[in-house]
Amino acid sequence: MTTYVWNYLAEYESEREDILEAVDQVFRSGRLVLGDSVQGFEREFAAYLGAGHCVGVDNGTNAVKLALEAVGVTRGDEVITVSNTAAPTVVAIDEIGAVPVFVDVRADDYLMDVGQVEAAITPRTRAIVPVHLYGQCVDMAPLLRIAAKHDLRIVEDCAQAHGARAGGRTAGTFGDAAAFSFYPTKVLGAYGDGGAVVTADAGVEAALRRLRYYGMEKTYYVVRTPGHNSRLDEVQAEILRRKLTRLDGYVKQRREVARRYAEGLAGLCGDGGLELPVVAPGNEHVYYVYVVRHSQRDRIIEALAERHDISLNISYPWPVHTMSGFAHLGVPRGALPVTERLAGQIFSLPMYPSLEPALQDRVIDALHDVIRTL
Ligand SMILES: *Cc1c(COP(=O)(O)O)cnc(C)c1O
């Protein structure tokens, strides 16, 4: 079965010298942990986003976890988020003993339905985690008003939204803190694991620096409140610095792939047909995933595999609240009707910067064949 969901090898071939030079630079620097490259990346990533401070951490899941802790979320606090997300969003909330509370998503762009947030607030609600899923920002203006009115913190999950913008503002600059992942597939990906939290608040920044370093004030080596070991690796930071200079280029390539899909698949859309990504007004999508929707998704996936040897991904086939690992949350099936319906209808088309047009055309042609003969 041909799976070209994601493949970094072509990109590595074109960037190999730069990547190997980054590795060598760190190994020769004499400083393998929290050195110049982590510091440099933090400065440069904050500047790229227009965020005040950046603290590098070991992965995106821990970025969400540390961000929540740094803004004051503790055991027993309720955190409002969505179930149509990558499971780690919820794993991070659960791991610190906080209670994830889900609101449904919108039926057009599959992002948090902000109109449902206020009804989910209780006296124990402490924070909201909007997920800028697939590469597009949640409707932040009304969410910021709700958070201010009820004195709630906002931690943005930006793991899929490096460089995405809404109303001219960059994802990661709306909330009290924002979590990024540099997992290799992400829009800005390392050659291994990595993550970061950005914030405009110097107090939150200081808390994050302690939390990633055992809870220590590094200057005194004293633990005041226990933390973790969640440092961003120096080698990955140097690779990320170099890839950051190419991020706008990667995004441009992703948008070109999206444009070719929209053009090539337009004939399959309309009245019960294929639904392509909807970009909300004022949003600049970075297309981490290109998610389409069709009521006969399973038959399409099956026929693509059988007739065309094409295997596609689904982001995501199981809403988090239906996973057995979250049964303890006690959210019944049927509680999030849009999320649950979507999970049976959405699927993802191959999307990465180095995707060759010929491969993309093969997918487009196969979709025409399969959907025409449903
Ligand atoms: C990838 C991802 C994460 C987790 O990032 P890791 O670096 O894999 O830990 C969290 N949230 C979302 C929405 C993601 O896509």
Give a nutshell description of this structure.
By secondary structure, this protein is of the alpha/beta class. The chain contains 12 helices and 14 strands.
Verbal overview:
The protein is α/β, with parallel strands linked by helices and 374 residues long. It has 2 domains: 10-103 and 110-244, Type I PLP-dependent aspartate aminotransferase-like (Major domain) (Aspartate Aminotransferase, domain 2), CATH 3.40.640; 247-371, Aspartate Aminotransferase, domain 1 (Alpha-Beta Complex). It contains 12 helices and 14 strands. The strands form 4 sheets. The protein has a 7-stranded mixed beta sheet with strand order 1-9-8-5-4-2-3, with helices on both faces. Strands 7-6-12 form a 3-stranded antiparallel beta sheet, with no helix packed on it. The structure holds pyridoxal-5'-phosphate (PLP). Pyridoxal-5'-phosphate binds at residues 59-61, 85-86, 88-89, 131, 157, 159-160, 181, 183, 193, 195. Pyridoxal-5'-phosphate binds next to helix 3 and helix 4.
Features:
Aspartate Aminotransferase, domain 2; three-stranded antiparallel β-sheet; globular; binds pyridoxal-5'-phosphate; Aspartate Aminotransferase, domain 1; 374 residues; alpha/beta
Topology at a glance:
Blueprint: H1 9-29, H2 36-49, E1 53-57, H3 60-70, E2 78-82, H4 87-95, E3 99-103, H5 117-120, E4 125-128, H6 140-149, E5 153-157, E6 165-166, E7 169-170, E8 177-181, E9 195-199, H7 202-211, E10 216-217, E11 222-223, H8 234-244, H9 247-265, E12 283-284, E13 290-293, H10 297-308, H11 337-343, E14 346-349, H12 357-372
Bound molecules: pyridoxal-5'-phosphate.
